[in-house]
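Protein folding task:
====================
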Amino acid sequence: MRSNVTLAAILLLTSGLATNATGQDCPATVTDIDGNTYPVVQIGDQCWTAENLRTAHYRNGNAIPYATDNSAWSQLNTTSTGASTNYNNDPANDAIYGKLYNGFAVSDGRGLCPQAWHVPTDAEWQTLESALGMPTNELGQTGYRGGAENVGGKLKATVLWNSPNTGATNESGFSAVPGGFLNIGIDNLFHFYFQGDRGGWWSSTNNPAFAKYRELMSAHAGILRSDLPRSYGTCVRCLRDATVGLFEQDPVQFTIAPNPTTSVFTLKLSQPAQAGQVVVLDATGRAVLAQRFNGNGPVTLDLSGHGNGLYVVQVFYPDGTRLTERVVKQ
């Protein structure tokens, strides 16, 4: 029985899909929880959104607080709460540059990117940079790197940037635009700056105060890797979750029992967390269950009403870590 279920899952997962070297299928577009649709580009073995994120809601449908003044933004940062806004408080910027998010929205366990997508880690940014020719010895450096290889120029759009837009070819298809930044200055006022000259993008790699981010500049052909206070606002790109082969598994960091199951199963996490989310996907990649958790469980999930077959169980931690296991319903 189990072999038949697995074979059916293989057929569902592989039929009609054009995959890259790691087994990923890059769709032409992806749609967020608000119905915004983004073009997708494959760079190396990764699938990236080719526009900045615009969503006003987390993946579970909860609203992301939208701040239009320094008081609201500061208060949200003080409580480590996610926030978003538009450059110069102008909604017209949304369609062109996307929203500016603080670093706490990026790490919120409810998920900023669409289902099966995530804010890339610092290491995943390095994978992108390597695919565009950055030397290995520069990947972990801070400051601007990859200038000689025109890594930044390959990422930058050829429009919207102020002169000189050094090296811009957009040959990667990433279509990076200069969305700028937001900060609360020493005068305790909103300060929007660098739109047209610089673009910034968060990574999900962070500590309590700072997160790794990337920055492109009109006057430079490289790409900056540095730390940005999580209280700042800048842009977000989403990366598709890496496809894990049917017979590959993460190092065991949570257990599922019983497996196979007839409907109800429990998972227990070996890595405690203050909060997180469990998402169960069917063989087509559609989310069929989602549940938040605190501590290390156990978490009980029920597949009653869903068909027999192979399901993927993903655990999302607030720091951006994702763990994957599989469960068979029969």
